[in-house]
Amino acid sequence: MTDPRFITSPIEDEMKDSYLDYAMSVIVSRALPDARDGLKPVHRRILYSMYDLNLMSDRPFKKSATIVGDVIGKYHPHGDMSIYDALVRMAQDFNLRYTLVNGHGNFGSIDGDPPAAYRYTEAKMTKMAEELLKDIEKETVNFRPNFDNSLQEPEVLPSMIPNLLVNGATGIAVGMATNIPPHNLSEVIDGTIALIDNPELEIKDLMKHIKAPDFPTGGYIMGMEGAKNAFHTGRGSIIMRAKTEIEERKNNRQAIIITEIPYQVNKARLVEQIAEGVNNKKITGVSDLRDESDRRGMRVVIELSTHANAQLVMNQLIKHSDLQCNFGIIMLALVDGVPRVLNLKEALNIFINYRKEIVVRRSTYELRKAKERAHILEGLRIALDKIDLIIKTIRASKTPDEAKTQLMSKFGLSELQAQAILDMKLQRLTGLEREKIEAEYKEVMARITYLEALLKSEKKIFEVIKSELTEIKKKYGDERRSKIKPAEDTSFDVIDLIPQEDVVITVTGSGYIKRQLLSSYRAQKRGGRGVVGMTMREEDQVEHMFITTTHHDLAFFTNNAKIYRLKVYEVPEAGRQAKGTNVVNLLSLTPGEKISNVFPIKDFDTDEFLLIATRKGVVNKTSMRAFLNIRKTGIFALKLDEGDELVDVRLTDGKKDIILITRNGMSIRFNERAIRPTGRMTRGVKGITLRKGDEVVAMIQLADEQYVFVATNKGYGKRTEVDEYRTQSRGGVGVKTMTLTAKNGHIAASKAVTDEDELMLTSKNGTVIRIKTKEISDLGRATQGVILMRLEEGDEMSSLGLIRKEDAEEGQ
Fold first, then answer.
1. Helix (H, G, I), strand (E, B) or coil at 394
2. Using CA atoms, how far apart are residues 592 and 596, in angstroms rounded to an integer?
3. Strand ranges inside 531-682, DSSP E
4. Torsion sign across C-alpha atoms 724, 611, 518, 710
5. CA 49 – CA 32 distance, rounded (Å)
6. Predicted confidence band at 492 (pLDDT cuts at 50, 70, 90)?
7. Which of 317, 456, 610, 754 is the most exposed place for a label (fewest CB within 10 A)?
8. How does strand 747-753 pair with strand 707-712?
9. What is the rounded average pLDDT of the residues 108-120?
């Protein structure tokens, strides 16, 4: 037998019903605003409680704790902090476009600082909030019982302003969310009036008045596309950008000044993001960062390094911080208790129809009250006309009730009129008071005539709505804060902002890379001491140095034959003695992976080839287009034999002669046509046969060069005419390129040069010397060379950079 105290129900049905009840409660009673007054229940209850407590804009402040307690006890039985947070938000001028609460004390800041506890702060309503509650006592809205049926609360406020659009709303319900941005009051009212005048207006016509959202923190709205989508469909995404200006400083320096930031961006967090970007080298060219904001306004100063490109830094800030971010619009609100995504016209029409209902209900209430007053005044007029009989009748009556009855029967008065006569003071019998009653009667009758005509004419009702909206605009309207800028061309390339300059790229064995202007190195005589080009750690050494331009790409080849891609201008600039930035901060290298070669490339989408040589004498030729889409994590360039590694890389048309140079002074010259092109991840073919203990140290490519230059690890070198290197078949042993002894060491680097070129030699300790090629002795292949660079004890020559004629002229 079933126990009657229990109800049996399948758990699936119970879970479903319970969850749906919970979901609808959250949607309707907590998270979503009503489309009519634009308020969620908690905000509506706070404002009504403040109205109940008489906390009007012209009244003294009261403790926020009083308001919170009143709201909890009467209307909203939830956590005190949730109510206080809602109260605080309505007082924050960086959250609401038009604040509804006037806060006294610490109500938080745009830096994310929390407000003081509610026992310390005080609050009252703003004048704008009063417009939301105006006429609530005139039966304009329906009331319902509160949570314990002890009081009545309004279902919605009789808002005189289109608050849903003006202040926006944000909330997360169950299975849905709303994110309505704030708009400019003047624009919204202009659009509303235009729609009243012409209900057939299309959204594109409304957008002539309401151009886009208007955020309390100002800033820029980039383009109209996002606003257009949101206004037409109820959904869209707006690009917000901080307002910045560039200040000129002393010594050719500039500073970027941030004065307005995107809506709902935490300023302190923004400054932290910028600092983090500077520290991890994602944002370059910044020398100092500080927040100088005060009560006069926002001011974040980003000082730039000398010669830093302000527009480039701006683009880096936009990319790596919240200086630019999106606002995703979802115009979801409750319409007749049902969630609906609204477009602009629908949102305005709901407000217009609501205001029409409010005006009708208010006018109906006022008409009833006017008729009631007219009825009383008519009785008073009768009494004044027959005052002697009235007084005689009252004096003859034994009780007030008898007097009332006698008045009603003798003079045809209603009970209300008779009571009003009995309550009338003797002073009303004076001539002046008689005139006042007559004037009031005429005024009330005129009011009745007006209200009756108003209620019969929809046109007159709309004129009242328009008049009231115009008055609201006159009282509270202001200029747009968020300026609208044209959307930037998506085809725009940041490289267009980068000045094309010749630079020196230096990479050390432990992975430090830096960029310097070529002009920072002046040419010296052969055999000079050089200058310090980099501060080195004792165990580190310079391995790669070359000249390129800021508009080129860098192709990084690693020890496991992967290729990575990076723009030259993305390499942080550093002083001559600085060690630079560790390449792991710029590339997504895997553990144990190190840079073996770095190669500047102008364009990957060409008919050219990438020619790669390895330590074991293997050469590989692959089309450049095979490397078009280099992922951030890199791609493999070729397949290496075990124990082999990359030595040199060249960009080629596939038709030139190349020379492979070995550590022990051998060389071989052959034409690239002897190497068939293959795809990525192939092994390649033999370029030179190596003797035991030998390895390839360089690959040079011949075009119009007159000489082959070779340099040893001990600072010796020479140049030899190209014609002394005869063309041979690929894969041979080759010929001697230099006579090596204990004095001059082994071959460290080699280049193909002309008389117009210059060379930059770098030692392991970071010493650099720049030499004109024509100052180096022209010697035969089988010679020992001459001293190019006098090295300190224990130091060695490690890398070689080539400066072409046009580069050399720039660097003088």
1. helix
2. 12
3. 531-532, 542-549, 553-558, 562-567, 581-582, 595-601, 609-614, 618-623, 635-636, 646-652, 657-662, 666-671
4. negative
5. 20
6. very low
7. 456
8. antiparallel
9. 95
Cα separation, 679 vs 212, in Å, equals 52
Paired tokens of 176:
């849905």
715 vs 712: CA distance, rounded Å = 6
- Render pLDDT for 773-782 as a digit per residue (tens, 0 to 9): 888 888 888 8
pLDDT tens, residue by residue, 639-650: 888 888 888 888
**CA-to-CA separations, 246 to 288, 314, 553, 648, in angstroms, rounded:** 14, 10, 29, 44
State the helix-helix crossing angle for 64-74 and 41-52, rounded to 10 degrees: 110
- 747/745 Cα distance (integer angstroms): 7
- If one compares 615 and 213, the residue with the highest pLDDT of the two is 213
Neighbour-count burial for 407-433, b at 16+ CB within 10 Å, e otherwise: beeebebeeebbbbbbebeeebeeeeb
Q: Residue type at 133? A: L
- CA dihedral sign, ordered 17, 23, 28, 30: positive
Helix axes 80-91, 64-74, angle to 10 degrees: 130
pLDDT in tens, 528-550: 445 445 454 433 556 677 788 88
DSSP assigned state of 757: -
Tell me the CB-side half-sphere exposure of residue 255, using CA atoms within 13 A.
17
- Residue with the bigger pLDDT between 449 and 486: it is 449
Cβ-contact 236, 229 below 8 angstroms: yes
Question: pLDDT tens across 727-759, in order?
Answer: 999 999 999 999 999 888 999 888 888 888 888
Who has greater pLDDT, 559 or 74? 74
- Say how far apart CA 722 and CA 737 lie, in whole Å: 11
Q: What domains are defined for the chain?
A: 39-158 (3.90.199.10), 243-322 (3.30.1360.40), 356-475 (1.10.268.10), 498-810 (2.120.10.90)
Retrieve residue 533's tokens.
């080009």
CA 103, 107, 109 angle in degrees (round to 5)?
Answer: 130
pLDDT, mean over the chain: 87
Question: Cα–Cα distances in Å, from 525 out to 529, 534, 642, 711, 750?
Answer: 9, 20, 44, 16, 20
Report yes or no on whether pTM surpasses 0.70.
Answer: no
Tell the residue number behind the tokens 């508009």, with chain if given: 551
Q: What is the rounded end-to-end Cα distance, in angstroms, of the chain? A: 106
Does 120 qualify as catalytic in the annotation? yes
Residues contacting residue 395 through CB under 8 Å, at least 6 positions apart: none
* Long-range CB contacts (within 8 A, 24+) of 672-678: 672/609, 672/611, 672/621, 674/729, 674/730, 675/611, 675/619, 675/620, 675/621, 675/730, 676/621, 677/609, 677/621, 677/622, 677/623, 678/620, 678/621, 678/622
**To the nearest 10°, the Cα dihedral for 281, 284, 288, 289?**
-80
For residue 549, list its beta bridge partners.
502
**Band of residue 42 on the pLDDT scale cut at 50, 70, 90:** very high
- Tokens representing 399? 């009780």
- Catalytic residue from among 22, 75, 118, 120: 120
Residue 232: how many CB atoms within 10 A of its CB?
16
